[in-house]
Amino acid sequence: EAGVAQSPRYKIIEKRQSVAFWCNPISGHATLYWYQQILGQGPKLLIQFQNNGVVDDSQLPKDRFSAERLKGVDSTLKIQPAKLEDSAVYLCASSLGLRGTDTQYFGPGTRLTVL
Amino acid sequence: KNEVEQSPQNLTAQEGEFITINCSYSVGISALHWLQQHPGGGIVSLFMLSSGKKKHGRLIATINIQEKHSSLHITASHPRDSAVYICAPLNNNNDMRFGAGTRLTVKP
User: Fold this and answer.
1) A56/B96 Cβ within 8 A
2) Exposed, middle or buried: residue B72 (CB in 10 Å: 0-12, 13-18, 19+)?
3) FRET partner for B103 with CA separation of 20 to 30 A, picked from A83, B40, B74, B84?
4) Which residues of B touch A42 (CB under 8 A)?
5) What per-residue confidence (pLDDT) applies to A7?
6) CB-CB neighbors (< 8 A) of A37 in chain B
7) pLDDT tens across A16-27, in order?
8) Pairwise CB contact (< 8 Å): A91 & B4
9) Is residue B41 scored above 90 in pLDDT?
C-alpha cells in the first residue's frame, strides 16, 4: 500500500513569510497527526484529526499555526507568519483508528528552514 | 524534568556489536513504542509493547512497567542499523510522548 505522502520535502523561507505543508495519509486511515520535530529533539504533537474533526490541538501555537482536514482525507498545515524558531521538520502521520495503540505510519517530513 | 529520558544520546558501535538503548519515563503508561528514524526524516514503528519482551529479527525490546523502564537491544549490529531510535510511551490518556532519541552509528 502507498505510504503517507508529504510535500514539499524542503522549504526555505524568510521570517514573517507564510508557508503551507500538505499531507496525504494512507487510504482509509481515519486519524491524522501533525508533528513538529526540532533538530535534536523528539517529535512534538501539534494537532490530531479524527476524520475532519480536531481531537487535540493543545500544543498548536494558534496565533500563527493553523491546520485543516476539510474532507477527512488530505490535510494542510500553515504557518503565518513564520519565526526563526519554527525551523524544524514537520511530520505527518496517520493511523487506522483513534486508539493510541494503533500503529502510526509516518510520512517523510517537510524540512522547513526559516532565515 | 522531561517525561521521557533516553540514554545514551549518541552511540557509536562497530559492526557486530550488541547494542542497548535505554528509556525511562515518569508517567503511568498504557504501552510504549520504539520508533526508528532514518536520515531524511522517515519514521518506522519497530515495536509496541505493554509488558515483557518482544523480538523481531535482530531487535529485542523489553519493558518493566513497575520500574518505568524499557530497553531496545540490537544483536549483531550492522551499518544499516544506523539511525535515530526514539522511545515513545503512551500515557494513560493514550497520548504519545517522545524521547529525544538515540543516534546510533554502526561502523563497518
Assistant:
1) no
2) buried
3) A83
4) 4, 86, 88, 98-101
5) 95
6) 41
7) 999 999 999 999
8) no
9) no
pLDDT digits (tens, 9 = 90+) for A72-86: 899 999 999 999 999
CA distance B42 to A20: 20
Residue B47 has pLDDT above 80, yes or no: yes
DSSP letter string, A49-80? EETTEEEE-TTS-TTTEEEE-TTSS-EEEEES
Q: Which string of DSSP letters, residue by residue, matches chain B?
A: --SEEEE-SEEEEETT--EEEEEEE-S-EEEEEEEEE-TTS-EEEEEEESSEEEEETTEEEEEETTTTEEEEEESS--GGG-EEEEEEEEETT--B-----EEEEEE-
Tell me, yes or no, if A113 comes closer than 8 A to chain B by beta carbon: no
Instruction: Spell out which residues of chain A touch residue B100, defining contact as CB-CB under 8 Å.
Output: 40-42
Share of chain A above pLDDT 70, in %: 97
Instruction: Kindly indicate the confidence band of residue B52, based on its pLDDT and cuts at 50, 70 and 90.
Output: very high
